[in-house]
Amino acid sequence: DLMVAMNPQTWEQDVSSIEPGGYLLHDSTKPMQEAEFRDDITVIGVPLTEIANRDFTDPRQRQLFKNIIYVGVLSALLDLDVA
After folding, report:
1. Separation between Cα atoms, residue 77 and residue 79, nearest integer Å
2. Which of 6, 12, 27, 34 is the most buried (most CB within 10 A)?
3. Are 66 and 48 in contact (CB under 8 A)?
4. Torsion angle, CA of 31/43/14/4, rounded to 10 degrees?
5. Strand order in 2-5's β-sheet?
6. Residues near 41 by Cβ (< 8 Å), separated by ≥ 6?
7. What are the tens digits of pLDDT across the range 30-82?
């Protein structure tokens, strides 16, 4: 079970829906309290906003590329064959 949680409005619902032993990928640019996570899942934080903001100035591009960056992270974590 793998959840990519990118929406602050649905954070609690998203995290609670992960099966025990599952994984949570989230944007770690803004530090979060430990209480916002669960002990029975693996949390993977990636500074998505920081990366997008460093390389893009247009707000629309920043948002679009933040999504593309997390897809790249997932492909690396899952060892997908890009070909």
Report:
1. 5
2. 27
3. yes
4. 90
5. 2-5, 23-27, 42-46
6. 15, 18, 20, 21, 22, 23, 24
7. 888 888 899 999 999 999 999 999 999 999 999 999 999 999 999 999 999 87
Q: Return the half-sphere exposure (C-beta side, CA atoms, 13 A cut-off) of residue 38.
A: 19
Q: Which residues pair with 2 in a beta bridge?
A: 23
Task: Report pTM.
Answer: 0.86
**Residue entry with tokens 């309290």:** 33
CA atoms of 77 and 65, how far apart (whole Å): 18
Cα torsion for 34, 3, 28, 50, to the nearest 10°?
-170
Q: How far is CA 51 from CA 12, 46, 48, 69, 70, in A?
A: 25, 9, 5, 8, 10
Identify the DSSP state of 78. Answer: T
AA identity, residue 41: I
